[in-house]
Amino acid sequence: MRKVLLATYLGSAAALAVGSASANDELIKMSQNPKDWVMPAGDYANTRYSKLNQINAQNVGKLQVAWTFSTGVLRGHEGGPLIIGNVMYVHTPFPNKVYALDLSNENKIIWKYEPKQDPNVIPVMCCDTVNRGLSYGDGKIILHQADTNLVALDAKTGQVAWSATNGNPAKGETGTSAALVVKDKVLVGISGGEFGVQCHVTAYDLKSGKQVWRAYSEGPDDQIKLDPAKTTSLGKPVGPDSSLKTWQGDQWKIGGGCTWGWISYDPALNMVYYGSGNPSTWNPKQRPGDNKWSMTIFARDADTGMAKWVYQMTPHDEWDYDGVNEMILTDQQINGQPRKLLTHFDRNGLAYTLDRENGELLVAEKYDPKVNWTSGVDMNKSSPTYGRPKVLDAASTDKAGEDVNVKGICPAALGTKDEQPAAYSPDTQLFYVPTNHVCMDYEPFKVSYTAGQPYVGATLSMYPPQGESHMGNFIAWDGKTGKIVWSNKEQFSVWSGALATAGGVVFYGTLEGYLKAVDAKSGKELYKFKTPSGIIGNVTTYENNGKQYVAVLSGVGGWAGIGLAAGLTDPTAGLGAVGGYAALSNYTALGGTLTVFSLPN
Predict the structure, then answer these.
(1) Where does the Pyrrolo-quinoline quinone repeat domain start and stop, copy by copy (predicted)?
(2) CATH value at residue 489
(3) 588 annotated as belonging to a binding site for a ligand
(4) Sorting pLDDT into bands at 50, 70 and 90, what band is 22?
């Protein structure tokens, strides 16, 4: 896959010659080296695949702990470290410390960055004080702090090269996502959908930190960076005021659509891809209409931010099914034809495969059979509802109305998958997906907007599907056919990012704290080790001094672990997660640790 990306990139080098692309050239070259891990997802395509094969299906059972590192911070540790040469960069949740560790000298701390942030940002962070990781470019480590400051640190010294303010926590805007360096820019989203923020993705100049462009998720065409005639949705121009027409009055100004997930990039097409989150409020009665372009996959020109195509997955969301999960870019054959694909596992329980050049919808299927809010997506291109999910009345919180508790909706608000990223192996042509197997009761109520105050308007409770006790599955998925190839049950949601390797092994972590290795073809469990705390981090691999290592952050928290992380006990607290995951405290406790594994000498 990386060879394909590199070849297509080099083939269109002339098209990329406009402006400074040196950081991009450097990053593409660096991401070809499997010894390092230089981007949040390992590569621009978000595949989370490594060519390293020293650890393989035959010997992975012999893995042992090589070394550990305490981050000194509690609460949820999402994301994973970067590895560049002999240096590993580790990040933490709030206060967002960054450590540079010398891998060639007993993992000694080279430098530490600890920002001074106002602790008042903590209660504004919806679902724990998480941070999804660091990025690298032009000799700088990029950190998106909780207080929304985007900071560029000198990779050698940790000194601040520049800082840019990306939002205002007083309005409910916070920073939890990993930025992505693309050419001479740093792209980053914003969190705050539960506070009625009008959300956006912003590009900053990598050298100076100056804002280059900003594209909102909803509002007037110029703010969203849509061209009514040239931007398409399912092959047709979106037309003028495509967002404004789907909101009542000025509701779009507090419309949500946040962008705290992952960004991917196709250098050959020079396009970036990401998803937008839920519309505000969670009470659908208060915001009639499709609420475009919340819950949408955006494909944008990396240089200008202009949207080439958009696809809204959950129009008029009634369940908080954010569309922010990663977009995985692959080149595969469908019906005998080579296609440039984008695959996305949405919170709403549907897995989508689209043509990433033009946004054509190719596959949309349930990746958990228990999904019951929809009977599926209308795939008839001549139908007036083409591309829309067919909502079942029994699960409609809008039809039931305010102050009515709609029971047994699957999936729950945290989705069949949340931000925990899937992996793709070009060897098997399968996706490996950490999933939640959780349903909910959902009761909307009227809520008024006050800047900086929660703007939710729904009470939730969560539990496993009826007649079942497990709350998670780890699955292998065929994105060409939309079918589950194998599925492993887990007691709790799998809230860790997966890693696929050329050794035929797939790694993931569990909420109880196990790092697990499974056979990529069969799903057979080959290894497990219990780390000091629950794992919501993403598994990473690298090579140092001729030896392959596997690294993962443990530190329970995030939405699923918010009860433990924040000491909450009311079952409906944490937007319904506290009751659903109450038993987690019987298996793990708080703690931030990096655990690194290798084969014995």
Answers:
(1) 37-390, 495-550
(2) 2.140.10.10
(3) no
(4) low
